[in-house]
Amino acid sequence: MSAVIELDDLRVRLGRREVLEGISCRLGVAGAGKAIGLLRPNGAGKSTLIQTLLGFHQPSAGRARVLGVDCHSQSRQVKARIGYMPENDAFIADLTAVSFLRLMGEITGLPRDVALEKAHEVLFHVGLGEARYRAIGTYSLGMKQMAKLAQAILHGPELVILDEPTNGLDPAARSRMLKLIREMKDNHGMSVVLCSHLLRDVEEVCDEAVILKAGKIVHHADLEAERRTNRRFVELEVTGDDSGLFEVLKEHGAEGVNEGGGHWRIVLPPGVEIDSLWRLIARLDLSVHRLTHRRDSLEEIFLKAVGHLQASPGQEPAVQEVAADGRL
Amino acid sequence: MAVYKRGYRRYQGHLTGYWSRLLALPRFAWSRLMAQRLVVIVMMVSLFWPLACGVFIYVSNHTELWQGLDRGFTRFLEINPRFFVIFMNFQAVFAVLLAAFAGPSLIAPDLANNALPLYFSRPMSRADYVLARMLVLLGLLSPVTWVPGVLLFGMQTGMAGWDWFQLNWKIGLGILGGFLLWITFVSMVAMASSAYVKWRIVAGGLVLAFFFVLAGAGAMIDNILRVEWGSLLNPTLAVNKIWRWLLGAEALPGPEAYEHAIALAVMAAGLLWVLNRKLRPVEVVS
């Protein structure tokens, strides 16, 4: 099986600046229905990499292959097999969503009647069914994002490249977008390249992640393996009689260290969620003053990779913080 | 099953060929252009002159209608290269007007709405895109230029007979070739203007300005420097001279037709350069 993306000492020069400085890697397996996350600090060359894969830029050296096909010399074949959702607004303002998608389908190679049918089908799929006869120019930001996703998957591509798909979405729409992306890979076998600066998006959807920095790949993580070894760390501050907490935690396979004064450090095993901990605390009739939990997550991997973790050595847990003063 | 009841399924059927994909763009563009009232009105108005010319050909071929009139008027009614050059001059103006109204809505909205990455991330190159947009304008301008021109030539041939055709077949070719040259050039001007500015109205004004300003600049150079080569800047005069040469009509004073042809080619190269600079899926700031 060929790799989804195969880069061989890829160098891209824009003007006088070399934006990609000799990237080599093999990402994903074609047809496996996996998602690859592309993470980067700003200016790392992520957009340039995507645009090179789409044939927008010519490599100054090396080569890039998508699904086993050279992106530059066989650009047409590559483009017929991929769907692209750009980061910025991109549409034809005075066309209705159906007409817009139909046009996009036809220029990708769908027969006319199929393009029309698919346009309706995909718009219902992304939740724009009721608004499909409205001009796209009148859509809200969230609807435009969905319309962009719809045009990217309309023709059933083998690979979908999504550039910041959750930009500007409210939590509900973001959740829907991520669900659609998961469905694309799990139910339809599409490979997905997800470019995002939101680590949680990548963590929720992707199977592997690549971190770019200054035009180079600085880390390539197998998120599935990371998840398998993942444990959840909890810092807990309680009042009340917590002498029984240690035993109760052990019963659930968790480990806890009492630091005194109601301060606990707890490691939850895979599969045990925070909800269970809240229930245990409630059972012991303890008052929670502070509960913070975090994973040894992509955030930590990312910060290590781009070199920020050493610069800020404080152990501030940053992922999520829950504070409660009332009794449970 | 109703489309809203079934879920999304990946399309895995056959894909259409190159021309089918390419012609989808003109098809959608034509349907949008025909929804613009102004474009339809200009198209209709531009067909009055060919109708009048048709009546003229009819009258000139029915000698019984003008028997007894003086010889000067008889010469005026003669269908010759001069008649067709006058016909073409009128239609050339309508072609420019139509291109100014229709052209800017082709590329400017794609640039304003950042639609180019969507086109170019599909199996469509920049050359394909330009060709597709060009076909829109060529398709729109043809019914007001070479189509009525060839029909009038056919009408005259039908009425005047085979002998007239044998003597004047070059006129037919000249009408076809001359108009194709003109509408290609006008389409390039409209597309380059549309690509250069993102606002439709300004782009339309730019199309008209291109022809008027260059003509004015050429006349100024000729008059101030007392030379003749200034007229090479005037694309309408250039094409008029080329048409006269193609149709075998009396030549105008000034630079030769081939010199004007070179000037037009240089302008066309400049327009292509603008298109090449502006029609990019992403803008690179170096």
Structure write-up:
The complex is a heterodimer of chains A (328) and B (286). With 328 residues, chain A is α/β, with parallel strands linked by helices. Chain A has helices at residues 46-53, 75-80, 97-108, 112-125, 141-153, 171-186, 199-205, 223-228, 245-251, 274-283, 298-306, 308-311, and strands at residues 5-14, 17-27, 35-39, 61-66, 69-70, 82-85, 159-163, 191-195, 208-213, 216-222, 232-239, 255-260, 263-268, 287-295, 320-322. Chain A has two domains: 5-226, P-loop containing nucleotide triphosphate hydrolases (Rossmann fold), CATH 3.40.50; 230-322, Alpha-Beta Plaits, CATH 3.30.70. Chain A has twelve helices and 15 strands. In chain A, the strands form three sheets. Chain A has a six-stranded mixed beta sheet, with helices on both faces. The termini of chain A are far apart. Mean pLDDT of chain A is 83; it is low at 309-328. The relative contact order of chain B is 0.12. Chain B starts with 17 loop residues before the first helix and ends in an 8-residue tail after the last helix. Chain B has helices spanning 18-33, 37-45, 48-60, 71-76, 81-102, 104-112, 116-120, 126-141, 146-160, 162-196, 200-225, 235-247, 257-278.
